[in-house]
Here is the input.
Amino acid sequence: MDTALNLDVKSLLREGVELTDVNLEALIPAPETVPSSIHKAMRHSTFAGGKRLRPVLVYQAAAAVAGAVPQGIGKLGAAIEMLHTYSLIHDDLPALDNDDLRRGKPTAHVVFGEAIAILAGDALQTRAYEVLATLDCPPAATVEIIRQIANATGTVEGMIGGQVLDLEGEGSKPTPESVDAIHRAKTGALIRVSVVTGGIFAGATPGQVALLDTFGRKAGLAFQIIDDVLDMTQDSAQLGKTAGKDLNQDKATWPAVYGIEQSLRDADRLIGEAFVALEPFGANAEGLRSVARYLVERKS
Here is the structure.
């Protein structure tokens, strides 16, 4: 990665983390708030050191539309991070992926027990929608943002549907069609909607929303392809989660179908195609381009 670009991305990520965490701190009940066990569990997973990539995509998509990160958008980023964290808590449960390490720390069910972990995920999802209903943007935009996010986290080509396809595909030979469907839904949908809703918050036109949607779909798929590759090539300390679980659980992954080298080429191609969708935004989309390139060049 170019040194200047690397520094720019580091700055964008750091600023995104700070903006998101300030909002999360204010929006999630304090650990001593009764019932304290659930709030401690919510905070344990939320503040476990995530990169906040989805909120960063929210902010930079908004900047592509508005020329700068709009005031008040941190609540949208925080809500999407709550939804992402809820999905991780549930994904790690014994009934699903049964993992005891996430973001380099013990998972919620390991620390607080399975019942509280389930409820912590539920609570983060509920709180996210409560926050989304109070966004500082026109009412029509707020409703559309909520609709888009609910769709992206749902069962038809959304996050929950992707998780179901992933579970049901374990133990069977993955096909190009199955791995594409799982990746676009389970991971890609939330990345795509982060980009789209950031644009909507900033006042994007329908044409701009369509371009951001195209960018988000391609960047989201590229992100998950790289995640698959890293699971096979990095260790648990580097990843902050248990390495090699995809292979051990016969998960449908891009490398399982195409191999590592082709997977890397596919991710690079997808990012190139995603950049084409950003051309009408000109220099305003430089931050979004930098983050997208980081998605496929990261090592963890």
